[in-house]
Amino acid sequence: MLYNLLQLIFRIYFKLFFRAEIYGRENMPKDGAVILAANHMSNWDPPLVATFLHRPVSYMAKIELFKNPIFGRAITACHAFPVKRGAADRGAIKAALQVLKEGRCLGLFPEGTRSRTGRMGKAEAGVGLIAAMSKAPIVPVAIIGTDKIFANGGHFPKLKVIYGEPMQFTGDHKDKEALAAFSQSVMDKIAAMKAEYQD
Predict the structure, then answer these.
(1) How far is Cα 68 from Cα 89, in angstroms, rounded to an integer?
(2) CA-to-CA distance for 164 and 22, rounded, in angstroms?
(3) Gap between the Cα atoms of 197 and 181, Å rounded
(4) Which among 20, 67, 81, 137 counts the fewest CB atoms within 10 Å?
(5) Can you give the pTM of this predicted structure?
(6) Separation CA 176–CA 30 (nearest Å)
(7) How far is the C-alpha of 90 from the C-alpha of 130, rounded, in Å?
(8) CB within 8 A of 99, min separation 6: which ones?
């Protein structure tokens, strides 16, 4: 209920104030396990990626956000689950795999943290590991414009979200080099989509 209400509010907000343009939604599987992997520049990224989809998206969120009882309950109701940053959090990986096992949609940011400069960082191997262990396809997602929201005295930039064709990891989940290479190939695809759709 809360998720659907917030989705409606964000949909109106992003369209009305930021003229949001959405591309490639046909690349999103209608059902079954899927991972959305996006570049990360702002706290606006999670709702922007999820708002215009017909499937709810579950996100990992830093554990500190759950310490506020009201906000923690709200994001839990919106399918988020906690992750400890800066360490291999087996509990978060287990929770992510459970989301996919249930045939749901998992949202990840392969860089692991927000970019402060707008430039994309290197991918962590975690996204490849989760894809390998779950056998779920990854839909790369390019986000454009969220780093400029309210910058320079209240700027309202045009936002764009591009959903790419699904990518599948076919190697061994124990092959660290293959996992790292696949994770980076996802980021390379996101970078290519950003370049293609940038004004």
Answers:
(1) 21
(2) 11
(3) 25
(4) 67
(5) 0.90
(6) 31
(7) 11
(8) 33, 58, 79, 81, 105, 106
Distance (Å, rounded) from C-alpha 114 to C-alpha 173?
26
DSSP symbols for 53-117:
-SS-EEEEEEGGGGGSHHHHHHHHHTT-EEE-TTS--HHHHHHHHHHHHTT-EEEE-TTSS--SS
Written as six digits, the tokens of 188 are: 């390379």
Quick: pLDDT tens for 163-191: 999 999 988 888 889 999 999 999 999 99
CA distance 174 to 44: 34
Cα(39)–Cα(189) distance, rounded to whole angstroms?
Answer: 11
Count CA within 13 A, CB hemisphere, residue 118: 10
User: Helix 69-77 vs helix 2-18: angle between axes, to the nearest 10 degrees?
Assistant: 90
Structure tokens at 42: 């702002």
pLDDT digits (tens, 9 = 90+) for 113-168: 777 666 777 777 788 999 999 999 999 999 999 998 877 666 789 999 999 999 99
